[in-house]
Amino acid sequence: LLDSLTNAEASPKDGETAGRRHRLAVNARRYLDDHGLMAWAQTLFQEIIQHQPSDPWAFIDEKSREARAKPAEDAAELNTLVNKESEGRDASKLIPAGPSAKEILALRRAACRSLVEAAASGRLKEALIEISREMEA
């Protein structure tokens, strides 16, 4: 799907420009990344190939259920850990203050958008070279 959206050599459809196709591809990739779908699908296909289940559709259904339940399980596990560790202690001192999961997701999305825009404009390579120089200093 992404290859078909990003393929600059593809024949234009009724006046569709390479720039428009590129924007569509960037938006598609952003959506897939924002929702963790690309990484999930890659892992899913690797597992299907590795395990070769007799009913791949049931396997996909199970993995989908697991993926939807994962955020809730992670939150429950963290709550259990905090409750267990905080018995008789101030829970605010157990987990250092930091950005919330929502803030981290917003930062990740902003970083992804910035990287995609920088790559499209050619600034990414320059920025990476600059960062490398700063790290060496």
Short description:
By secondary structure, the protein is mainly α.
Give the tags.
single chain, 137 residues, mainly alpha, 6 helices, 74% helix, 0% strand, extended
Question: What do these coordinates show?
Answer:
The chain has about 140 residues and is mainly α. The protein has helices at about 1-5, 20-35, 35-50, 55-85, 100-120, 125-135. α2 packs antiparallel against α5. The protein is extended and about 50 Å long. The model has no long low-confidence stretch (mean pLDDT about 75).
Summarize the SSE layout with pairings:
Elements: H1 2-6, H2 18-34, H3 37-51, H4 56-85, H5 101-121, H6 123-136
Helix pairs in contact: 2-5
Number of helices, where a helix is a run of at least 4 consecutive DSSP H or I residues: 6
- Sequence of secondary-structure elements: HHHHHH
End-to-end Cα distance, whole Å, is: 42 Å
Shape: extended
- Beta-strand level of the residues, as a percent range? under 5%
- Counting DSSP E segments of at least 2 residues, the number of strands comes to 0
Structural class: mainly alpha
Mean pLDDT: 74
Oligomer: single chain
Low-pLDDT runs of 5+ residues are none
> What would you report as the Rg, rounded to the nearest angstrom?
21 Å
* Portion of residues within helices: over 70%
Main beta sheet strand tally, sense and closure: none
